[in-house]
Each structure stands twice: as C-alpha cells, then as structure tokens.
Specification:
With about 210 residues, the chain is α+β, with helices and mostly antiparallel strands. The longest helix is centred in the last third of the chain and has 31 residues. The chain has a five-stranded mixed barrel with strand order 1-3-5-6-7.
Length: about 210
C-alpha cells in the first residue's frame, strides 16, 4: 500500500503516544488529510537529512500512526497526539515532494506465547520493576504501584516506549526479528540502565557521607 511518511528524529512503537507540533505546510496538509479521513501516516526514523527542509532519507522500518487528539492554533499550525499502530517495512520510495511517500507492507511482530517467550517476559518484568524502584530511590520520590502487562507483546511495547534509548538503539528494538529477540534486547538495555542507576545511587550515598 502507499503510505505518506513523516520522517523524524524519534522512533515510534505500537501503542506509543507521540505528540507533534505540525507547522510545515507540507505536513499540515498531509496530517490534515489523515485527520479528515481518519487514516494513518507512517513515522520513520531519519537515516540521513533533517526533519525540516529537504526530504530526508528514512530507515526502512517504521510504524503507522493515527491522530487521536488535535488542537488547531491561530497561525494555522496544530498540535496533535498520535498513537502508534502497526510496524511496516518500506519496499520503495515513490515520492519525495512535497513529502516522502512509499510503497510499504505491514510487518507486525509475530506474537509468541511459547514458554521461552513467557520466561523472557517474566525476567524482563522483574528487571523493569527493579529499575523503577532504583529510579524512585534516586529521586527520593514516590510512585504508585506500576501494573505491568502480563502479555509478553504488550510488555515489550511498553518497555520499548518507556525506557530511554538513543534513536539508533530504539530503531534496533523496532527492527527485532522476533518477540523473543526483542524481549532479550530489552532486558539487556534495562540491565544496563540498572547498572547506571546503581552507580548514581552509590555516588549519591557517598556525597551524603562527605
């Protein structure tokens, strides 16, 4: 299918909310059409170029987005909140003006209810719980109990969207070939964040003693 693309310096995952300030005329027209027809556009990480000016070169894998909220501004721009829906893969760029468009095919990550995926999800859930606890200790704050999804796919999408990662690292998560691979990649990322948090906590305690 043909899909209008919105190249950005961020990665969108299924189920993730994405606030956008739409100001360029080409994207105001494009997103405006999607709002009027309740259709989707594609969010893709920029591989080369910028998100304003000349058309950027996107990565081959992105996520469709549907506008859920819109606020029209007096200057003709608008703020929207879009939500990621389905992963797709670009087969061919078919237009670069006024914005990039491509022939794409849906490429959703296959669900996996195998014992291995369940175990990987349980391990990720435990690591993520520990990371949240450490972040609360670091910030000397309070956070209500976080109910993590029991479904491995829902958990994977939540962690992908919720754990800070650079764009290239996030793109790697988006391009995972299987749910089991994604859960493993995310656990390694969370464990790395845990190590960083423990180091910061040690430094904070040392500073209090001095």
């Amino acid at each position: 299918m043909r899909l209008d693309l919105f190249p950005l310096h961020t990665v969108l995952f299924p189920g993730m909310r994405l606030p956008l300030h739409v100001f360029e005329p080409r994207y105001r027209a494009m997103v405006g059409r999607c709002i009027e027809t309740d259709s989707v556009f594609g969010v893709v990480l920029i591989a080369e170029g910028a998100d304003v000016g000349a058309p950027a070169v996107p990565h081959a894998v992105g996520t469709t987005a549907r506008v859920r909220k819109v606020k029209y501004l007096p200057d003709g721009c608008f703020d929207v909140v879009a939500v990621g829906e389905t992963r797709f893969r670009i087969r061919q760029i078919v237009a670069r003006e006024p914005h990039v468009a491509a022939e794409v095919e849906p490429d959703p990550l296959a669900d996996d209810d195998s014992p291995a995926a369940r175990q990987a999800a349980d391990e990720l859930r435990a690591s993520f719980d520990r990371l949240v606890t450490l972040m609360i200790e670091l910030q000397s704050g309070y956070m209500p109990n976080l109910e993590l999804p029991s479904d491995p796919m829902a958990l994977a999408n939540l962690v992908a969207a919720g754990v800070p990662a650079g764009p290239q690292s996030a793109q790697g998560l988006l391009e995972a070939e299987s749910l089991l691979q994604l859960l493993g990649m995310e656990r390694r990322l969370v464990e790395h964040r845990i190590a960083q948090a423990l180091q910061r906590l040690r430094e904070k305690l040392d500073a209090r003693r001095n």
